[in-house]
Amino acid sequence: MPGKPANDKPTYDEANRLMELSAILFYAFTVLTVGSAAYMVFSKNIVHAAFALIFSLSGVAALYVLLYADFVAATQILVYVGGILILILFGIMLTTLDFTENLKTVTVNMLPASLLSGAVAVLLLYVFFAAEWTTIVPADRDGTMYDLGMMLMNEYLLPFQIAGVLLLVAIIGALLMSTRHKNEP
Amino acid sequence: MVENILNSIGHFYPEISIVVTLCVVIIADLLLKRENHTISWIFLAGLTVTGLLVLQQTGLNTSIFHDMAAVDPFAVFFKVILIIASLFIVLFSINSRELDPYKSRLGEYYMLIAGMILGMFLMVGSTNLLLIYLAFEMTSICSYVLAGFTKRALKSAEGSIKYIMYGAVSSGIMLYGISLLIGITAATDIYGVNASLAAGIDQPMILYIAILMIIVGIGFKIAVVPFHFWAPDVYEGAPITITAFLAVASKIAAVALMIRLFKVSFMDTASVQIIGDWPIFEGLNWNMLLAFMAALAMIAGNLTALKQDNIKRMLAYSSIAHAGYILMGFVVLTDEGITAIMIYVFMYLFMNLGAFYVAMLFSNKLNTESIEKYKGLGFRAPMECIAMTVFLIALTGLPPTAGFIAKLYIFGAAISAGWIWLVLIAGITTVISLFYYIRVVKNMFFFKSDGISEPLVFDAGSKVILFMLLIPVLLFGIYFTPIIEFARYSLKMFGM
Lengths: 185, 496
What we know:
heterodimer; A: mainly alpha; Four Helix Bundle (Hemerythrin (Met), subunit A); 2 domains; B: mainly alpha; 21 helices; 74% helix
C-alpha cells in the first residue's frame, strides 16, 4: 500500500549486505518474469505460451516477496499460478485436439506495430530514468497479514467491497457470454 | 475508525440500494417466469428507490470511507442524470422488440445494467485513484457484455470484441498513467496528489505523460478523437437500448470523473485569489491538449457523420462530436465552463435518448436502421417523425429547443475565456452537423413512401415515453432557469 512520502533517510549500513543479496535476487526474478512473458508473447504454441505464463506469474510472486508482501505473494501463487493458469491449461487440453493444433497466431501490420511499440518502449524507459520517484523503503516486518486485514476492513473497506461486486458482475457476464439457451435464435 | 465507516454507510444508501437491486434481480430471475416483463418492473422499482435516495442526498457535502469517495452537490447532480438515463433505458428495454428473442436472459441483462450504474455512481463520486480505477473497470466490464448481448447477431458480437480489445488496452494505459502519478506524488487520494504537487514537484514532462495516459483511458470512455475508433462499430452492433445507454450515461459519467480528477488534482489552490477562476499548476497546461482533442472530435465526428446511412452509426459519430463540445467547456478552466457542461449534459440526455428512442420505434416496426428506408415515414407516423425532427434540431443546437440553450452556454463560456479559435471550429462544425441531421428529416417528410402507405401504429405506452422525452427538450428550450440554478448550485465539490 502506498503511503505518505518517507522523509527520514534509511539507514543503509546494517542492511547493506542484505540489500545486495535482495538486489541480485530481484534482477534474477525480473529476468525470469520478463523473459517468460516475452516467450509467451512470441511463442506460436499455445500450450508453451501457457506454461511460460506460469513462470512469469511465479516471478511476479517472488518480486512481491522481495517487497515484504508475503500475503500478496501467496495469493498470487494460489490464485494465478495455482488457479487461473491451471484452468487455462485444462481449457486448452480439454478442447478438441485439432482445434488447438490448427490454432495459428497471425501477426499483421508488422511495421507500424513494431514502430509503435518501439516508440512506447522509448517513452517508458525515458519516464523510468527521468522521473524522480518518491521511494518508500519497506520496513522489515514479520508479517503483513494483521495490518492488511485491518486496512481492508478500515481505510480500504469500500474498494474491497466494490471489488467483490465487480467479480460477481464479471462472473455473470462470463456466464451470459458463454452459455446458450435452448429457445434462443 | 469504526465511526467513520458507520457514518459513511449513512451517506452510501444509493449505491447500497443499487447493489441490493442487483441481488434482488438475480433471485427474482430464479423464481419468476421468464416470459413476461415482471423482472423489468422489479428493476424499475429498484431504480426508483435508488433515485429517491439520491435526491435525499442533496445538500450534503462530505467525504466518506476515509476519503475514498465524496458525496457533494457535484456528485449528486450527475447521479440524478445517470438515474434518469437508467430509468429511460429500462422503459426502452420493455418496448424493444430487438431484445424479445433474449427474453429468458433479461435477468442477466438488468444485473449488468445495475452493475454499470454502480460503476458510474462511483465514477462520479470517487476521490481515490484506486476506487476511480475500480469504478472505471466495473462500468467497462458490464458494458462489454451488454454490447454483445444480442450475441446471435454477428454485428453485436463483432462490436463487443472490438470494444473489449480497445477497452482493455486503453484501461491498461490509464492504469500505467495512474501508477506514474502515484509514483511521483506518493499519494493515492486526489487531495494528496494535489498537496504533493502544491509542495512543488518539478517534473512537468513526467506529469504530462502521466496525464496523457490517464486521458487515453477517460477519452476512450467519452469516445473522443483520437480514442473513438471503437464507437461506431460498437454503437451499431449493440442493441439500441444499450447504444443509447453508452452514448449518454457512460459518456456523462466519464466526463464527471474527468472534471473531478483534473480539477481536484491539478488545481493550484494557493493562487486561486491571484489568477482567478481555476488556476492550474504552472507549466502543466494539460488543457491545451484537451482543446486540440475537442477540436479534432468536433471536426472528425461531424464530417464522418455526413456519410453514414445507419442511424445508430450516424448518432455514434454525432455523439463523438458532442463529446468535443462538452470538452470545450472543460478546457476553459472556469466555473462558468463547468456549469455549461452540466447544463449541456442535462439537455444532451433528453435529446439524444429521444433520437435513439424514435430510431428504436422505427426499428421495431420496420426492422431497419437505414436512413434511406425512412423515406416517406413522415406520412405514416407523423407524430414520431415530428418528435424525431425536434430531437435532431435540438442535437444541432437550434432554438427553441434545449439543445440551443446547451450550446449557447458552452459557446458563451468559451468566448468569455478567450478561446476564439475553438469556438470558431465549434460554430463551423455545428453548421456542418445540420446537414446530416436534416437529411433524416428530409427523408422522412420530403419523399413519397415507395408503395406502402398504411400508417404505423404505436401503442399508448410508447407514446407516453416519447412525450416524457419530447416535453423536456421543448420545455427546457424556453424555461431553463431551474436547470441553470441547479447546475450552478451543484458546482460545489468536496474539498474545493
